[in-house]
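<given_protein>
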Amino acid sequence: MKIGLYFGTFNPIHIGHLIIANHVAEYSGLDQIWIVVTPHNPLKNKQTLLDDYQRLQLVFLATEEYPKIKPSDIEFKLSQPNYTVNTLAHLQEKFPQNIFSLIMGEDNLKSLHKWKNFEVILENYEIYVYPRIDTNGQTAESISEKAKILKFKNNSKIHFIDAPIVEISSTFIRENIKNKKNVRPLLPSKVWEYIDHNNLYKK
């Protein structure tokens, strides 16, 4: 089975995440997308980051009606701080029958060369890249960062996908819940209900 791994804190997961995950699931040839919830780094200030299992529960609620999209707590079981290359090695050992790929935004691709053992990742795993908007309202590929992405254009392991560009951030959602704004349209209905019922992000 071909599995795409979509990493993030998902604090909280929102409709933008689902749009990306579903697009890759439907149009990339992958069989499933695993939403890999990144655990809280004990060396960093927690600030507004929800408990690991609450965020996992939100991902479960968001994806339970999408048979191709699954929540994953695989990184909860690994020592912290963890690196993507270690997670990939662990998954390959645990599920040798599966073929794993990465899903990331253009912004992450630009910094891929800074990742631990990124050459190992590039050599052994396919990467599916979706477009992102930069801080000036342009796609990352349309400005100076283009040079950082061009070096990957001819790499057969990297696939640029024509996914919708969704300008929604978890930070925006958290801040506006705190400010008593209605962000319900930006969240899957069950995610909103869980957040509202448990008074999350309101302080």
Notes: The two ends are 42 Å apart (CA to CA). DSSP finds eight helices and six strands in the chain. The CA atoms of residues 134 and 140 lie 5 Å apart. The beta strands are 2-8, 32-37, 69-72, 99-105, 126-130, 158-160.
